[in-house]
Design goal:
The protein has 298 residues and is α/β, with parallel strands linked by helices. It contains ten helices and eleven strands. It is 41% helix and 16% strand. The strands form three sheets. Strands 1-11-8-7-5-6 form a six-stranded parallel beta sheet. A three-stranded parallel beta sheet has the order 3-2-4, sandwiched between helices. Helix 1 runs parallel beside helix 10.
């Protein structure tokens, strides 16, 4: 039986978008323009097309300008870099996102590195990673930023001294979310496939962030009673209906819900936060480029 508080990422993301709408209005009053987000999609990957369409729709809904760039799958590296440089120089564009993954013949690192770090609203540029590690203002990768917002929503600002375990060490989620927790004065452990006695390590945690990509790996007996559990995993597995699939996280939701103090569901937890944080980053980037103070920390 579930006893954990359900962390509703969908509802939190809706509230964040409402605050962004207000921020866009204030920015427009101060600058006589609205923030602009450019999204570049190369190729015809179905999942990417759906995701990009949702990003563009939500960009317009919060009052920002959306600049859509669709390129064929055989686009040359030099042509993609040239487009990024054009967007870097465009004063109407505050944020640039090149949808990943790219077709295999393109160098993702080189493309991300070509983006102006101050317009890198996906937070993937090495300069923004360095700023995060150094405690300097920068743009933080959207999913880790969303995780941190949900953690603070549940625990408030009382994170100092708490033990946090991040399962997964990717540059997309694991490492940046660990840096954010460290900046909040948590004692942070990054666990991974080579960690000895992983369940025992996780049992010490007041905060668990699971971002490893293995369906329902984290079990109830891994969790400290009352812990805050953030499940970043999105895994498609067979469902009870023959031929159908369902989405599950990296956490055994049914079991862990009986032990944890709070937990994100999959779907409906971290997922909705990613696009909302992209819009948040775009507004922050616009404010910084205009010489305005950052909006309120969320």
């Amino acid at each position: 039986m579930s006893t954990a508080q359900l962390i509703d990422g969908k509802a939190f993301a809706a509230g964040l978008r409402t605050q962004i709408v207000e921020g866009v209005g204030q920015f427009q009053q101060a600058t006589a323009r609205v923030p602009g987000l450019a999204v570049v999609l190369v190729g015809e990957d179905p999942a990417s097309k759906v995701y990009v369409g949702s990003k563009e729709k939500q960009t317009v809904e919060v009052g920002m300008r959306s600049f859509a760039h669709r390129l064929p799958a055989d686009t040359a590296q030099a042509d993609l870099i040239a487009l990024v440089q054009q967007l870097n120089a465009d004063p109407a564009v505050d944020g640039i996102l090149v949808q990943l993954p790219l077709p295999k013949h393109l160098d993702e690192l080189a493309v991300v590195s070509a983006i102006d770090p101050d317009k890198d609203v996906d937070g993937l540029h090495v300069v923004n990673a360095g700023r995060l590690a150094s405690g300097l203002p920068g743009l933080v990768s959207c999913t880790p930023l969303g995780c941190m917002m949900l953690i603070k929503h549940v625990l408030g600002d009382h994170l100092s001294g708490k033990n946090a375990v991040v399962i997964g060490r990717s540059i997309l989620v694991g490492k940046p979310v660990a840096q954010l927790l460290l900046a909040a004065n948590c004692t942070v452990t990054i666990a991974h496939s080579r960690t000895a006695d992983l369940p025992d390590v996780v049992r010490r945690a007041d905060i668990v962030v699971a971002a490893v990509g293995r369906p329902e790996m984290v079990k109830a007996d891994w969790i400290k009673p009352g812990a805050c559990v953030i499940d970043v995993g999105i895994n498609r597995v067979p469902s009870a209906n023959e031929g159908k699939t369902k989405l599950v996280g990296d956490v055994d939701f049914a079991g862990v819900s009986a032990v944890a103090g709070s937990i994100t569901p999959v779907p409906g937890g971290v997922g909705p936060m990613t696009i909302a944080c992209l819009l948040y980053n775009t507004l922050q980037a616009a404010r910084r480029r205009a010489g305005l103070a950052d909006g309120a920390a969320l």
